[in-house]
Structure formats: structure tokens, C-alpha cells
Amino acid sequence: MVNLVVFFGGESCEHDVSIITGLQFISKVNEYLYNIIPIYIDKNGDWLTGKNLKDLDNFPDNLGKTVKVGILDNDKALYKIGKSHKAKKICDIDVAVICLHGAGGEDGVISASLESSKIPYINSSVMPSAVCMDKIVFDYIVAGMGIAKVDFLAVTKFEYDEDKFEVLDRIKNFGFPIIIKPARLGSSIGINVCKNYDDLERLLENSFEFDCRILIERYANVKKEVNIACFLNKNDIVLSKTEEPISKHEILDFGQKYVASCGMENMKRIMPANISKEQYENIVDIVCRVYSTLNMFGVVRFDFFIDENDKLYINEVNTIPGSMAYYLFEDTYSYPELIDMWLANALIRNTNAQMKVKDYSSSILKQGLNGFKK
């Protein structure tokens, strides 16, 4: 039986959403094929496992007996961490799934840990995860690729603390209305619409509570939002249906996504999105270009919007989307079928990675330090 580790929770404002995503995933795994090992990362950053962690009803106060666990570099095993910090092997890890949203998971941190232990996992690797998590870096990259993006600028807490009024004036000259976003946060947390200078300082400081780097975007009159997901199956990018989320607010906020609708898959939407053939083809072209260029892997959701002039803009990319975006593929694949494909591809990727040449013989050490400048 395959030992499958599923990470969820995490030290992030998106902790609770991640629990939902992780337990949804676990509930759809074929337990006849996989031995599911839930790893809940609590708000203190401890990795915990236990039998009660598979049931949402036990969160947050009825987790029962849990065991603190961890992994080691260059070692595919899961270890129990005792009070004296001694490690005792529990089992080998055959494959892992990261269902962590936000910092400490979606940003490539867990991907790096798994790669250092040579553990296969279904998600994007460190670089694309980090790039897509950072909205400022991502915006510069897609703008450099010639992909339509609303005008933006970046400000830091250091700049703000050094000269608050210079930063406020810079944003004022950029013009209103604007959207203020923490650079490395998702689920619409900490995002504010600012329509005038009088509100700027208050809303900027609110966003700085979540991140030390802030993205300022030109506010666009959005006619509709369009999302699409995809994943790599062998050498083919598999596309989902498009969706058009229905919102009565200026931005699709956390409450609409997760509280009122009880998760992304239950949110009101039109599927497929009501867009033209040309807009759809443009979306597919952008998705495939960005996914390939950034060397993404696993399921990824791309979020676009169309303005009042019918111009298409890319908004952001989620390398660990809410609910793993399974609902966007339902017409073609069941969630268990998706899981089987994702896990199979993870194993193939890991095998290929381990087969690459990692050693290069040279005479450089025999030369000593004589040939090197001090």
C-alpha cells in the first residue's frame, strides 16, 4: 500500500481554508490503494499526525492524541519527534500532497523540504510556487512576457517607515481608485479598495499588518471574473472548464469565497463562463505560456478578469487552489481520478529528477588554492 502524506493547516491567515482543502482531498482518496497520513501544521508551526485529524468535526478543539512528526534531509521517512527531540521512524513516505494555502506552504517552503528529502509530491516546485505567491514578482514577470496586466506599483514597509509622506504622495500621483494588496497573501485577505487620499493611510496600514510588501493596482471596472485550472499529465496540459464567479461586491472577498458559500466549490458561478471564443482562446494561450514558462506542476488555477471595454487581464495564479480546483474538472474526471493522475505524475517526475546527472568529475581539488584569487 502506498503511504500518502497530506499537509494542511499551516502558519498562515489561510489556515482554516487549508484545513477544508486538505480534508476534502483526504475524503476522496481511495483508502484501499493509499495509506493516508494526515499532517496538520498547527498555528505554531508544529507538524502533527493522529487519527482524529481526518474529520473536520474534530477541529479545532477535539484533535485527540496527536504525535509531533518531521522529516530529515535526504531521507524519505516520516519520524516521530519525542520530547527530547529524538527521532523515531514511523514509516517511509511514498508521495506527498501539499494542501497549504499562503505563507509556509504555497510559497514553496514545504516543497523545498520535500525535495531535500527526495519525497515525490504533486505540487509545483520551489521556484514557481514562490514566484506565484509573490504578486509583485509575478506581475513583473507576466508584464515582461507581454501579457496584459493592470498598471501597478510596489511599496514596502521599510519605505513607509522611512518616509511615509513620500510613499503616500507616490501613490497619490499614481491616481485613484486603487486596490491595495499584501504581496504574499491569498483568499482576498487584507485587500482593500481605496477611492481617495483621505482613506489611503488607514487602508495602507491595514494591509501592512499582513505583509511588509504591498502591491498597488489600478482599480478596473470589472465586468466579469473568469477562472480556469489546469495540470500537467505526462507532457500534456489538461484544461478545466472556465468559471465565472458571481459577486455583488467590488472585490470577491474572503467571506464570499469561504464563509457564505462554505468553500470555493459551492460559490455561485456560471460554468462555463459567458465569454467569447476569442477571449477563451486568449485565456488558453496565456495559461499554457505561463504554466510552461514558469515550469509549473500539478493543479494550478489562473484568475482573469474582463473590464468594461471587454479587455482581458490576468489577475493572479494559485499554485495550490482552494478545494484543489477539483470542481472545475468534474465534467471530465471525478476527484478520485484526478488524485490518481496527480499522484502518478508526481512519482514520474521524482523518478526522472533522481535520474539526472548530479556529479561532475574534475581535477580542481588537486590544483589546490593556487589558481584562486584571495
Folded structure, characterized:
This protein is 30% helix and 27% strand. Strand 12 and strand 13 form a beta hairpin. The longest helix has 21 residues. Strands 6-5-4-3-2-1-7 form a seven-stranded mixed beta sheet. A five-stranded antiparallel beta sheet has the order 14-13-12-15-16, sandwiched between helices. Strands 8-11-9-10 form a four-stranded antiparallel beta sheet, with helices on both faces. By secondary structure, it is α+β, with helices and mostly antiparallel strands.
List keywords for this structure.
seven-stranded mixed β-sheet, 374 residues, globular, five-stranded antiparallel β-sheet, 10 helices
Task: Write a short abstract of this structure.
With 374 residues, the chain is an alpha+beta fold.
